[in-house]
Amino acid sequence: MKHNALVVANWKLNPIGFDEAKNLLTELKKKLKKVNSTTIVVTPPFLFISDFSKSLKGGEIKLGAQDVFYEEIGPFTGEISAGQLVGFGVSHVIVGHSERRALGETDEQVNKKIQAIIKRRMTPIVCIGEKNRDEQGTFFNDIEAQIKGLAKGLLAKDIVKVVIAYEPIWAIGTGKTATVEDVKEMQLFIVSTLTKLYDRKTAEKVTLLYGGSVKASIAKELYEQGGMSGFLVGGASLNANEFSGIVNATIS
Known about the structure:
CATH superfamily: Aldolase class I
Strand order of the largest sheet: 1-2-3-4-5-6-7-8
CATH topology: TIM Barrel
Oligomer: single chain
Structural class: alpha/beta
Number of strands: 8
Strand content: 15-25%
Shape: globular
CATH class: Alpha Beta
Helix content: 40-55%
Number of domains: 1
Distance between the termini: 16 Å
């Protein structure tokens, strides 16, 4: 089941200055006019969200966030809640990115964040992925455990609101990209795992993305043959030409 395309720009800790960020957003808006068939989300650093909220209001590009805390309010120094994000018009929130997991984030914390995001009627984009691939396929056990962790306590009506982004850790920021066969194999595995947890109809309603050194040159092949419904883009999203090329690859 092919969903409407979704392409998400994860700017991570970039750029360092607001003027540079504003110029990049302006370029993206120019290049991505009238792209109605694909949902485009930009997730800037938290400090830029307030200004971007005004700039993107009513436009074709949606505003996202790179993370969130699972509590709404209280003594949690440095954290930002789902309630605060939704107040700025944020529609999508990335959680469980491997860079966050590397800092100690657990499946349980990711699950709590998902529930907080859904409660505020935003869309969680949940990252999963393996560190390494082995010929025996034991890495599928890691993927299955991550899917079970993110789905814990979620009813069918909740899981269909979740976007799952498959990002093999060995491909993030390395220039290495999973093959079309790798991506298609993982798409089938994710659907199979969700089917066991829920049912086939529910599993096929969950939007799946691919991320990991995505480039415009390979995006069309990955999109058309990999079975995913779009991309979570890191480094390439900082280049307006490259990112718009990836978006255009999802337009039929």
